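Appendix B. Raw example, untouched.
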Amino acid sequence: SAVSLGGSATIGGGKIGQLINATQNSEVTTSSTSRVASNLTASITPSATSSKVLVMFSMLFTVSRANAEQYCNYAIQRGGSDIWTTQSVQAWGLYIGNSNHIYMTGNANHSFLDTPSTTNSTTYSITFAQSGGGTAKANAHNSVSTIQLLEVLA
C-alpha cells in the first residue's frame, strides 16, 4: 500500500511478484571483439504490462593478454537485444604499460531495472567480449555465476 510522505508526496507499489534464479558454472572463453553468450540466462513472465523487472547478476570474469591493455565488455540482453552495456559507460579491465603479460580476474555484480511492457515470457542473458587483442573468460575457473529476475509490481 502507499505511504504518505506529507503534502501530496506518496510512495507505493514496488511489491515483488515473483523471483527467478538461475546459475551457470561452465567457463566460456573468447578472443572475439563481438560479444558472445556467457550461457547465463533466465526467463520470466511478468503478470502485468506495468510490471518492471529487476535484473541482477554476478559473474567472475578473467582477461589476459601478452602486453599493454585488455578489457572485457559485457551486456544485459532482453530477447537478444542489448538493454544495458559497459560500452555505454566504461569497459571492465586494465591497462599496464610495458608489461610482459596481463592476467586479471574479478567479479562483476550488476543490477538494472527494466520495463519490458509485456506479459509474454521474457528471456534475459549476459553476453561478453574482449577488447585489446587478448582473451576474456566468463564464469572463469568454472565459478558459479548467478542471475536473478524480480518482478516489481506497479
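End of appendix B.
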